[in-house]
Prior knowledge:
The chain is mainly β. It has one helix at about 30-35; strands at about 15-20, 25, 40-45, 50-55, 60, 70.
Amino acid sequence: xxxxxxxxxxxxxxxxxMEIAGxxxxxxxxxxxxxxxxxxxYKETGxxxxxxxxxxxxxxxxxxxxxxxxxxxxxxxxxxx
Length: 81
């Protein structure tokens, strides 16, 4: 199962909606256990910038940096994107 980070104009029924520092974050009910407690920050270094995500739920990460596993999904192999 692939849970992606993206931009959307609206939420759906059952979504959790939070507003932090003027930024609205919408998380669907399926994804919430995977991102509960996550810290998202925007950092600029030199001529580059981007989001950094610190996820205390991740027990293992993929070498590509795009995938992670939690205690809930331990032992379930999934394709690394």
